[in-house]
Here is the input.
Amino acid sequence: MVHCEGDVTVQIAFASYLQKYRIKTDALYLAIKDAIINGTLPLHTKLASTRLLAEQYGLSRGIVTQVYDMLLAEGYVTARSGQGTFVAYRYEQPAEPPRPMHKAALSKWGERVRQLRKNQLGDGYHDHCLYPFHWGHTDMSEFPVKEWNRCMHASLRQMQEDGDVSLRDPQGDPALREAIAAYLLRNRGFAAAPSQIVIVNGSTQAITLLAQLLVEPGMAAVSEEIGYAGVKQAVAAAGARWLPAEIDGSGIIPGSWEARLLFVTPTRQFPTGAVLNLERRQQLLQWAQEREAIIVEDEYDSEFRHKGKPLEPLKALDRRDRVVYIGSFSKAMPSYMRIGYAVLPKALAEPFCAAKELYEPRATGAVEQKALAEFMKSGAYDRHLRRMKRIYGSRFELLRRLLPAELPDLFEWVESDTGLHIFGWWRDSEERYERYAAICRAEGVRWAVARHGKGGTEGLVAGGAGNEDQANRQAAVRIGCYFHFIHMSLKRLEQGVAVMKAASETLNK
Ligand SMILES: Cc1ncc(COP(=O)(O)O)c(C=O)c1O
Here is the structure.
């Protein structure tokens, strides 16, 4: 009972509030405040005296006085001296009863992003399946857990000693940036100043931020067709016009695109695996110079070349500082780690950091970053890479031999001596492809697919068909399929291919 005027009293739901909030002061305060806001205690209503209310609910007068003071401070009630405490809030009857929000009114950017998510993945992409060729992740059974734990413990100890300082730099842990610079010089043949390196949450974050930073809605951005879906999504989210750059067996075909931004995978075209020759590399750099454009070079798995020496990245030829180099630890380290990096031209380093800082004023994964720096500095990373190259190399050899041998007719397999997936073009009709993919899916085999000529952001669709936009399809759609293998044992790979072979026989019946 709160309102007390003559005989009129109004009950407040103190008991149920107490059950919910446990603390008497909170419960009383919220019970009265809610009664005022929802009109149960209308404007000018006189509240019961502190003594009466305390008696009513078995509270101390101190608690009631404290609650009245809180309501007074917030303006819900006024106190008139000698007369009592009165409601000071005018309740307005809403024109129609409040309805829960079903659809948030989004900005154009928000709408674009929402749409992208809808198109992004085919049904069941994350479902467990027996032969998951559709995505690859580090084989954790081969990961040097002991060494990594040592680095994580050292990192935690250091964090405790340094306190907050080590979390401050959104550009990324300085020791990790130094270790990456040393790695790049040793293994990728170019010098990068740690001040131009920014640690990101996987290279996807760098790609997205660069699209946001470098294109206005309506402007053009170029990327390979077929190519990495994440790039197309970043371009679409930025509201930019996506210009497809054709590819052939030697990677991207340089064009005179009217654009200021190009995303490219020169070391190993994604997903076909083609290596870009020197002449084309020089043409791309020339184009960037003439257009004052930026080239984003995405090196997503260059650590794993199974034969010969890896080619130098485009960045090593970049005399005019027009190339952003992006690298990732996603293929070498546990997938949950989400650490990538961007090496930025001098003029872009500061705006890029500012953009990153907007989303993350403090470094995320600071413990892992520091641990990774130690892992690299101690030589454990190089040892791990050497070992994984051997292990992945034998899986690669097996799959590279088996797929063309067991499935010679359905796919045109692309020769490659490097990488962490095997690529093939589907040779037959789209309709037969859908049937084949469905048979394989039913048997637990999935793979990733990129369709040439489909435009925009195609689904990264496991085992074939997904939620696709029919209108987007063109007559000459070419279907590229790629098969990840690093997370599967030799036996599992053999079994997966055997299932695919059996499915091809079913298709031909
Ligand atoms: C070509 C390409 N670029 C970028 C990425 C994103 O990698 P990250 O895990 O570092 O975000 C991937 C992921 O598989 C990829 O295949």
Remarks:
- Residues 456-474 have pLDDT under 50 and may be disordered.
- The pocket of pyridoxal-5'-phosphate is lined by residues 202-204, 228, 230, 265, 270, 298, 300, 328, 330, 340 (CB under 6 Å).
